[in-house]
């Protein structure tokens, strides 16, 4: 038995190892003897590079820069790739100079990377699709990449040695459960705006990520929030080379990014144009929400999953970038079907727990509603009520508000009776600690009473069934005795004769 288990475990390890090896990228054509010549020819033959500079002199100087400064040592290219994977596997962290990230992006742009891993449109490491497609969205995506290439090249002397950091946080489920169960009057600062996540300077921008980080940024048809984040902060695209699919306990932070493009629109209406300001730096925090197409998002299990995911991200951001506000919004509320009120409260509660653990009080969490007037109204009303009460949003209030939604509410109720439910949420969120604790006890008592009624009903049913069984037993016993008496009487008469 032990041998069988060991064999299965070994096979699982081997399978995982194969997956990890398949995910790793290699230099395409690296076995060639004159590999640098191969790269330089690829640069010369790439027609899209000519679109980056209008004049022939600029094109020539840029290509020479690529050959002499970026791709001048083929052996070092392979060594650098291997070092990146080693760092990530051993430390869950990779630190790169901005010029090193540029080199990785150019490898992707020129189609010089390959790997034996396929995930549909996810984790594409070759930009050939958007370079060769003639559709409008591909053209806009390519413009973002070319804005980045040109801007980096023109500003290389000032920014080339600046450091970018890619890091992962993994949270233990049991340890987080203990943190969640602790009661505390930890308060948080928050703000609701009608802006977008990336509109705030000196902030950590939340990427409403897919578990496959980077999403479908390099395909030709998709351009939702994550894809846009990757396009306006294109250095983040390099993470697709070495960061595999996130687990439900993990979050990814990319620090010190520059915004190379601005944009309007969304999905098929996305339109990009160059950013003229490289002074500001941003961080991108990738946390993936769970999709709720038909599953109930108000269950304890599903709420816990989302709390854990947000906490993993917020803790990482507060530890690594303590002076940056967290700029988030309608996380998981688009095609994933998340409820805007539940998801907002989940983010607030996770942030409060993270603030308590990290002991960082100075920053705030920003909920960017963009065009969602309903959510913006909720936020501004909540802010106003708290100011009237002279109190702040705190951890206990948030726990009780989520407990209220978890035990009393479902999606249909929120649609049909949203005003009443929101007012009840306001009542919970603006009470002082003593009132909230009393309300908590009432909610728990109602749950206990509900369970007691169900138990009483079960007991009554059991008693009724037991009584019916006893009556049936009496009938059977009586019938058996009567039958036995008849047999005895018949036998007596027979033998008497």
Automatic annotation (TrEMBL):
Record-annotated membrane-spanning stretches: none
Catalytic site positions: 207, 226-227
Pfam families: PARG_cat_C
Every PARG catalytic Macro domain range: 185-358
InterPro entries: PARG_cat_C, Poly_GlycHdrlase
Source domain of life: Eukaryota
Gene Ontology process terms (BP): ATP generation from poly-ADP-D-ribose; carbohydrate metabolic process; nucleotide-sugar metabolic process; regulation of DNA repair
Keyword annotations of the record: Coiled coil
GO terms of molecular function: poly(ADP-ribose) glycohydrolase activity
Stated name of the protein: PARG catalytic Macro domain-containing protein
Organism of origin: Paramecium pentaurelia
């Amino acid at each position: 038995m032990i041998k069988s288990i060991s064999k299965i475990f070994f096979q699982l390890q081997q399978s995982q190892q194969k997956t990890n090896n398949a995910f790793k990228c290699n230099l395409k054509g690296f076995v060639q003897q004159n590999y640098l010549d191969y790269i330089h020819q690829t640069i010369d033959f790439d027609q899209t590079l000519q679109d980056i500079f209008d004049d022939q002199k600029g094109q020539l100087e840029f290509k020479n820069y690529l050959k002499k400064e970026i791709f001048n040592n083929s052996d070092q290219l392979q060594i650098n790739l291997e070092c990146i994977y080693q760092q990530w596997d051993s430390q869950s962290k990779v630190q790169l100079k901005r010029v090193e990230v540029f080199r990785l992006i150019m490898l992707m742009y020129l189609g010089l990377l390959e790997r034996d891993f396929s995930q549909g449109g996810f984790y594409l490491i070759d930009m050939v699709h958007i370079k060769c497609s003639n559709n409008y969205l591909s053209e806009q995506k390519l413009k973002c990449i070319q804005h980045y290439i040109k801007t980096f090249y023109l500003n290389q002397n000032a920014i080339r040695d600046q450091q970018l950091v890619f890091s992962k946080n993994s949270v233990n489920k049991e340890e987080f459960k203990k943190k969640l169960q602790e009661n505390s009057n930890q308060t948080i600062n928050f703000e609701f705006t009608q802006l977008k996540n990336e509109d705030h300077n000196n902030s950590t921008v939340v990427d409403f990520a897919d578990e496959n980080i980077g999403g479908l940024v390099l395909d030709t048809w998709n351009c939702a929030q994550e894809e846009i984040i990757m396009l306006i902060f294109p250095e983040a695209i390099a993470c697709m080379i070495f960061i595999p699919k996130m687990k439900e306990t993990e979050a990814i932070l990319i620090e010190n990014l520059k915004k190379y493009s601005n944009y309007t629109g969304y999905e098929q209406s996305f339109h990009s144009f160059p950013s003229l300001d490289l002074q500001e730096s941003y961080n991108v925090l990738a946390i993936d929400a769970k999709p709720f197409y038909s599953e109930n998002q108000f269950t304890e299990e599903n709420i816990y999953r989302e709390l854990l995911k947000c906490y993993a991200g917020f803790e990482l951001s507060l530890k690594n970038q303590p002076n940056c506000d967290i700029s988030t919004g309608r996380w998981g509320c688009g095609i994933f079907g998340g409820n805007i009120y539940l998801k907002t409260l989940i983010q607030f509660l996770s942030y409060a727990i993270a603030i308590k653990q990290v002991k960082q009080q100075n920053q705030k969490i920003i909920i960017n509603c963009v065009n969602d007037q309903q959510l913006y109204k909720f936020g501004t009303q909540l802010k106003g009520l708290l100011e009237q009460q002279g109190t702040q949003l705190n951890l206990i209030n948030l726990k009780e508000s989520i407990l209220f939604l978890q035990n009393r509410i479902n999606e249909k109720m929120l649609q049909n009776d949203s005003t009443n439910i929101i007012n009840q949420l306001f009542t919970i969120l603006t009470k002082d600690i003593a009132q909230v604790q009393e309300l908590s006890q009432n909610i728990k008592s109602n749950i206990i009473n509900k369970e007691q009624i169900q138990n009483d009903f079960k007991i009554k049913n059991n008693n009724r069934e037991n009584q019916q069984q006893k009556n049936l037993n009496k009938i059977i016993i009586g019938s058996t005795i009567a039958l036995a008496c008849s047999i005895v009487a018949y036998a007596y008469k027979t033998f008497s004769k």
